[in-house]
Amino acid sequence: DRVVLATHNPHKVEEFQSIVRATRPDLDVVGYDGPEPIEDGVTFAENALIKARAAAAHTGLPSLADDSGICVDVLGGSPGVFSAYWAGHTKDATANLELLLDQLSDVADPHRTARFVSTIALVIPGGAEHVVEGSWPGRLATAPRGEGGFGYDPIFIPDDQPQGAERTVGEWSAGEKNAASHRARAFAALTPLLADL
Ligand code: ITT
């Protein structure tokens, strides 16, 4: 089975390839370099559908897209769908996380709770559309740590680690992240739907 992955983010491609290899090795995930649609949705689901529909229309193949971000509780769920552009019009990951840390400079534990969210849309040309979501709860560190992953990973401390462990995702291996992340959780919810491709 072949499915198009409609993303221009090479980190997402790498993570999807590794998640799919671990759970659906028979699935052939191909990249997408067609036109990038305007992501003007106000929810993760709307943006994921915009991207997956564009790829399905362009390729004629079943298409997946991930729209994701970090949602901080004391900020009412922001940056949310604006995560990629939080600090301005260029996708500057360092500026984004520095701004977020500044915004939380007066916020102490236990109020630094946040979650990563991954929403995946699957669009089958002339067929069904599905949307699934995965969420990964944790807390924000006060300074970035670690070189792994991308985006906000150096400031996100997942809850699902041994009591007292404070490692950011930047300090996790790719294998650890891809077994536990919001993206892995969303993909797990997608698995039954991929069975009828
Ligand atoms: P595509 O739209 O081409 O897929 P993008 O990076 O612009 O790529 P989004 O619009 O979904 O994708 O923005 C997601 C942003 O959320 C991303 O740029 C990061 O800042 C953040 N993000 C999402 N998943 C993340 C993860 O696993 N680790 C760290 N940050 C993440």
CATH topology: Maf protein
- Tally of strands: 6
Low-pLDDT regions: none
CATH architecture: Alpha-Beta Complex
Biggest sheet character: 6 strands, mixed
The ordered string of helix (H) and strand (E) elements is: EHEHEHEEEHH
Question: How are the elements arranged and paired?
Answer:
Elements lengths: L1 E4 L4 H14 L4 E3 L13 H16 L3 E10 L20 H11 L9 E11 L5 E12 L15 E3 L15 H7 L1 H13 L3
The protein binds inosine 5'-triphosphate (ITT).
In summary, what is this structure?
The protein has five helices and six strands; from the N terminus they run βαβαβαβββαα. With 197 residues, it is an alpha/beta fold.
Describe this protein's structure.
The chain is an alpha/beta fold and 197 residues long. It has one domain (2-194): Maf protein (Alpha-Beta Complex), CATH 3.90.950.10. Helices cover 31% and strands 22% of the residues. Helix 4 packs across helix 5 (182-194).
Which descriptors would you attach to this protein?
globular, alpha/beta, binds inosine 5'-triphosphate, six-stranded mixed β-sheet, Maf protein, 197 residues, single chain, 5 helices
